[in-house]
Design brief:
The chain has about 300 residues and is α/β, with parallel strands linked by helices. It is built from ten helices and eleven strands.
């Protein structure tokens, strides 16, 4: 059997970002609206700093306004809350993202739920999660939205209809919203996790596998149904024999690529789509707040 098709998230994300830039230009020309994204970073976490820099650069490249607020890791819960409330009230800001994780003195859940649901471009607010689960218009978390877009692009609407989908991982950020999105596309959905009885057997039934469990190379090649589409959300840093590190996903790529019909690599798969979908969400939020239809790219 030939090796799987590699789903190039980097190339697809570039296409999505180009589409966003066209929509932003049209919003400016037709309605005088410039979508604005505000990112709040609390503390000095190196990974978070890289993400925030990348988000700011991508926002500006798409023609949007980028607002960045850095707070020390000693910032109190009240100070972070005050910043969120200030951004809620700022009409130039259509999307607010508070970079996680937050220092222990700041209540993460309370901060997320203090963001106006209409400006919650991360899609983590309890109102947005409730809307998504009941099929109403919601801000959708960026990573599962990116996974859905890649699956639609690769399989098409008909290819997803009736497909058996297994999600490995039940987080609020990926697993649960991913299930709602796959249900919208008429898949039959199972959420599996580390305590699922006969996890390999459950995954083996799937036409679509979304691995989002946060354990390096946990999903083995012999877990994959021949020809299945595999979306690997995991980003894990592991040590090599020479003492250096490398990034791997939650799927053992070298094994799965020999069995699957299509697979996303790590890096270069789901990761680039997350930032692209943050831009998509900011445009969506701006349009909804101004009561205008989202322009076609």
């Amino acid at each position: 059997m030939s090796e799987a098709t590699i789903i190039d998230g980097k190339a697809f994300a570039l296409k999505v970002r180009e589409g966003v830039a066209k929509k932003v230009a049209k919003l400016k020309a037709d309605h005088g609206i410039t979508p604005g994204l505000a990112v709040v970073l609390v503390g000095e976490d190196p990974a978070s700093q890289v993400y925030v820099r990348s988000k700011g650069k991508s926002t500006v490249e798409a023609g949007m306004e980028s607002f960045e607020f850095r707070m020390p890791d000693t910032a109190s819960h009240e100070e972070v809350l005050a910043k969120v409330e200030e951004l809620n009230a700022d009409p130039r800001v259509h999307g607010i993202l508070v970079q996680l994780p937050l220092p222990k003195q700041v209540n993460e859940e309370a901060i997320i739920n203090a963001i106006l649901p209409a400006k919650d471009v991360d899609g983590f607010h309890v109102i947005n999660t409730g809307r998504l689960s009941t099929g109403q218009d919601a801000m959708v978390p960026c990573t599962p939205l990116g996974c859905q877009m890649m699956l639609r692009e690769h399989l098409g609407a008909e290819g997803m209809k009736g497909a058996e989908a297994v999600i490995v991982g039940r987080s609020n950020i990926v697993g649960k919203p991913m299930a709602q999105l796959l249900l919208q596309d008429h898949c039959t959905v199972t959420i599996a996790h580390s305590r699922t009885a006969d996890l390999p057997g459950v995954v083996r039934r799937a036409d679509i596998v979304v691995a989002a469990v946060g354990r390096p190379e946990m999903v083995r090649g012999d877990w994959i149904k021949p020809g299945a589409t595999v979306i690997d959300v995991g980003i894990n840093r592991i040590e090599k024999e020479d003492g250096k590190t490398r990034l791997v996903g939650d799927v053992c790529f070298d094994e799965a690529v020999k069995v699957a019909g299509a697979i996303t690599p790590v890096p270069g798969g789901v990761g680039p789509m997350t930032i692209a979908c943050l831009l998509v969400n900011t445009v969506t939020a701006a349009c909804r707040q101004h009561g205008v239809a989202e322009p076609e790219a």
